[in-house]
Structure formats: C-alpha cells, structure tokens
Design goal:
Blueprint lengths: L4 H9 L12 H22 L3 H4 L5 E5 L7 H6 L3 E6 L2 H14 L4 E4 L2 H4 L6 E7 L8 H10 L1 E12 L3 H14 L16 H10 L3 E11 L4 E5 L5 E7 L14
Parallel strand pairs: 1-2, 1-4, 2-3, 4-5
Antiparallel strand pairs: 5-8, 6-7, 6-8
Bound molecules: S-adenosylmethionine.
The site of S-adenosylmethionine (SAM) has 23 residues, from helix 1, helix 2 and strand 2.
C-alpha cells in the first residue's frame, strides 16, 4: 500500500472541484496545458511518428494518480487507450463522470499501483504526474509503475524537488504567502529528488532520459519550461526494446 490516508481524504474533499479551472486546482490546469504539449511531443519523438497527423496510434497509456483526468482525457481524445488510476474514490468518480459527459473513453480504476495493476500488465507510456510527492514509499511506488512500462516504452514523472528553493517557493511562497495552493498541500520531507526517482526507475530496468525544470508564476498563473530543476521538474525514463528473437534453428 502506497496511499497515505490523510492525503487521499484531502484529495477526496477536493474532488468536486477538479474541472473548475478557477478553483483550488487552478495551478494544475495551468501546468497541464504546458505538460500536455510536452508529453505528446515526447511520445511522438520516442515512438517515431507525428501526433499532429497520426494521433497517438492506439498506444496503451497508464496515468497513475490521474486525479480528475486532466491528462487522461486529452490523451484518449488523441487516440490513446488510457487507463487512469487513482486512490481517491471521489477523484475516480469525478473523472469517470466527466469523461462520460464528454463522450471520451477512459478506463478508470480505484486504488494504488499494487492494487490495480495486474502482474504482467504492460503499457507503452506510463505517467506519474504530480503524484509521487503524495505517496508513501516512493521507491516502491516508482518501482511498481516502472515495471509496467513495456519493452520500448516510456515513463514520465513530474513532481517537486526537495531543495531549499522548493521550500521557499513551493511551500512558503505558494501555500502561505500567495496562497495559490491550500495550506498543507505539500510537505517538504515528502518531496522527491530526481536522483531518487532515477534510482527506483533504473532499479526496475529503465534507462534515464530527459530532465527539465518547470517554472510556475503564481502572480500571472503561467507556467514555462526552464533549466532550473530545483523546484518543479519533469523527467523521463525508457525501457530498451525487446531483443529480436533469435532465428529458429534450421530444420533437420
Ligand atoms: C496532485 S494530484 C495530481 C493529479 C493528476 N496526476 C494531475 O496531475 O492532474 C495527485 C493525485 O494522486 C492521487 N494519489 C495519491 N497517492 C496515490 C497512490 N498511492 N496511488 C494512486 N493515486 C494516488 C491523489 O488521490 C490525487 O488524485
């Protein structure tokens, strides 16, 4: 079990607000617009096609900790077969209702990775966006989702780094001074360093890819990519393609 009861209760209480882009989830809506472009572009580059013309070609995508489905829905609209998983019953209900209202097919499951993923279930793309900073036992969580990346597949993880700068900006500034996030949204000790993600993902057989920073402007409510990974960042990992099968021995 990687879910923290108090965190899940807090997300549950907010579940009705998920699709309100001016409500408590406003920062996620702003960030989502930026990261959706990156995720789609990265998928296209990795799998060698142009999503603008080809869509997402039926790729199987897992969105772990999907919340209300801000990322799951647009990826499904682009043609991916998306499974969204979340440990909050309210979020899964809100996500399912919204997808049904929009006529978008997403399969939602309730629980954490260990409860919802079958042992040999594989996905071409696995997303864990703004979730690892809310879970118990980050290495176990990341290791489990990384194991579900198919050969040749991709894992993208976005979160907040554990640095003095993230304490000042993401916690003191965002929650106590400017109040763009409710107090208690993030606890500094639970924030996750890129090296910690890398250790867990490579331990599950993945290879490290890109690492880039993201800057959120809490006054203007805008987000942009940057080099500085000391506060928000997104990182990718990939699994090598399966080796081609050796030729069958010649018939005697
Ligand atoms: C900050 S929200 C991010 C939602 C979504 N990924 C996004 O970026 O729009 C974190 C989500 O992770 C979920 N969550 C927290 N711990 C989890 C766990 N152990 N397993 C699955 N989901 C979890 C919460 O219920 C919440 O919906």
């Amino acid at each position: 079990m990687t879910a923290i009861a108090s965190e899940i209760e807090r997300f549950n209480r907010l579940s009705a607000t998920w699709w309100n882009s001016e409500g408590p989830m406003r920062p996620l809506h702003v960030v989502n617009a930026l990261r959706l472009g990156y995720v789609v572009e990265r998928i296209g580059q990795h799998f060698g096609f142009d999503p603008a013309t080809d869509g997402l070609r039926d790729l199987r995508v897992l969105d772990m900790g999907c919340g209300g489905g801000l990322m799951a829905e647009p990826l499904a609209r682009l043609g991916a077969r998306v499974v969204g998983v979340d440990a909050s019953p309210g979020n899964v209900a809100a996500a399912s209702l919204h997808a049904a209202q929009q006529g978008v097919a997403v399969e939602y499951r309730l629980g954490d990775p260990g409860q919802t993923l079958q042992a040999h279930e594989m996905f071409n793309v696995v997303l864990a966006l703004e979730v690892v900073e809310h879970v118990d036992d980050v290495p176990a969580f990341v290791h489990r989702v990384a194991r579900s990346v198919a050969p040749g597949g991709l894992l993208l993880v976005s979160t907040i780094n554990r640095t003095w700068k993230s304490y000042l900006f993401a916690i003191v500034g965002a929650e106590y001074v400017l109040r763009v996030l409710p107090r208690g949204t993030h606890r500094w000790r639970q924030l996750v360093r890129p090296s910690e993600l890398s250790a867990a993902a490579t331990g599950a057989g993945l290879q490290p890819g890109d690492l880039r920073g993201m800057r959120y402007n809490p006054i203007r409510h805008t987000a942009a990519w940057c080099r500085d990974t000391r506060v928000n960042y997104i990182t990718t990992f990939f699994r090598a393609p399966a080796a081609p099968e050796a030729d069958a021995p010649p018939a005697r």
